[in-house]
Specification:
33% helix; 12 strands; TIM Barrel; disordered C terminus
């Protein structure tokens, strides 16, 4: 991996279309599962974004926010709608104010608009809405075919994503992410090779929901509002069930990913957030880790390298697109030096950190002010934050570094050190 001795490049401003990002450090979208029943932010949500806004990152990728009630991943997932728009306005205003007060600049804030598809659980029990049956996931318990969404339903999803973008702009966000990753509905469609109708089969059809939602959002929002996407370019399981793979085995094939990013650029997108894998099926692909009750058939550094080198392939294919990386957390204290090396070599433009932000919300301040990350603040890649997310009523956070995290399923705080 490229490795730079100096991380000063991470403090540089980045222009991406209408966005002027104060530095190259990004807080990735990390769900808290701690909103209110009506979809608005709650106390723990507000606390999390106060810590992140004060932490110094130039860009906060605001967590997955449903645009249709039945597409919520859990009963406490955020859900933006006309009825709670004022609460989102207050949340964005507070993020901007806290960032300016702590750092002298306000972070750019992008809302991730989502429909959870096969992982929809709006009332606490699974109510999947799928693009097609997938035997790799479903195995001996196939989901009923009546849960396969129709083309007409997907038309409505597209309309809801565009409406979500309009609401996000009204709430004061700087942009919207038409989410297309990790096998949620939009991402699943990318591999709908055997689906009939307007959303399956050809590349044009499989990418239709993403492209038309992006086009609609661009047309419906102002020129000062960014439309982007967190996009899977590699799923990591076999054709015809995985996107970004060849027709034999699971080796990456970047050609359709490059083609899709190129088309999104032509639609007006100037910033994109690249990821891979499925956290429910092959979590090592998008978040290489040290432990957590799951065994991967590769060393975590192989996963990091596949992610970072794959993102560099996309960047080489679409040079004018500003690209955000993923999968840096496992590198620990080496992460800012590796990220700087890739950026200097033209591999990507901004460094995205996911699990790190739950353990170490001020990581950006330490990188920018001290030139390094502090070992005693690091995420240790134990995957407890994910384990909490899987628990009914769990509100994810870092049980190792954050003594303020509470789990409604337990009576006591998780403990640990602040």
């Amino acid at each position: 991996m490229p490795f730079a001795e100096d991380v000063a490049i991470l403090g540089e401003r980045v222009k991406a279309g209408c966005l002027d990002i104060p530095n190259r450090l990004v807080c990735q979208a990390m769900e808290g599962c701690d909103g209110k029943a009506d979809g608005s932010p709650d106390t723990l949500t507000e606390r999390r974004y106060k810590r992140l806004s004060e932490g110094g990152s130039g860009l906060i990728w605001f967590e997955a926010t449903a645009v249709m009630e039945e597409g919520r991943a859990n009963p406490r997932q955020l859900w933006i709608n006309e009825g709670n728009l004022d609460s989102f306005k207050r949340q964005v205003e507070k993020i901007k104010e806290d960032g300016m007060s702590a750092n002298g600049y306000a972070p750019v804030v992008i809302m991730q608009a989502t429909h959870s598809g096969r992982y929809s659980k709006p009332n606490g029990t699974p109510v999947p809405l799928i693009a097609y049956n997938n035997p790799i996931f479903e195995k001996e318990s196939p989901i009923s075919s009546d849960r396969i969404v129709t083309d007409e339903y997907l038309d409505r999803v597209g309309e809801a994503l565009v409406k979500g973008a309009v609401l996000a702009e009204r709430a004061g966000f700087d942009g919207v992410d038409i989410k297309c990753c990790h096998r949620y509905l939009n991402s699943e469609l990318l591999s709908a090779y055997n689906r009939d109708g307007r959303y399956g089969g050809s590349f044009e059809n499989r990418t239709r929901l993403l492209r038309e939602s992006v086009r609609g959002a661009v047309a419906s929002c102002s020129s000062d509002f960014a439309v982007t996407s967190r996009l899977n370019v590699y799923d990591g399981f076999e054709y015809p069930y995985g996107f970004g793979v060849g027709k034999e085995g699971i080796a990456p094939d970047w050609s359709e990913g490059i083609r899709l990013v190129s088309e999104l650029y032509r639609e007006g997108m100037r910033l994109i957030n690249i990821t891979m894998g499925n956290p429910y099926f092959n979590p090592h692909v998008n978040r290489p880790f040290a432990s957590g009750g799951y065994t991967a058939e590769e060393h975590p550094l192989e996963g990091v390298l596949r992610m970072l080198d794959g993102i560099a392939e996309i960047k080489r294919g679409v040079l004018d697109m500003k690209i955000i990386s993923s999968a840096l957390t496992y590198l620990g204290v080496a992460a800012p030096f590796v990220a700087s090396g890739y950026i200097q070599n033209g591999g990507f433009d901004l460094a995205g950190f996911g699990r790190t932000i739950l353990a170490y919300p001020d990581f950006a301040q330490d990188i920018l002010r001290c030139g390094e990350m502090k070992r005693d603040k690091l995420c240790i890649c134990c995957s407890k934050c994910t384990e909490i997310m899987r628990k009914p009523g769990g509100t994810p956070g870092c049980v190792v570094r954050d003594k303020e995290v509470y789990l409604p399923i337990y009576k006591e705080p998780c403990g640990g050190v602040k």
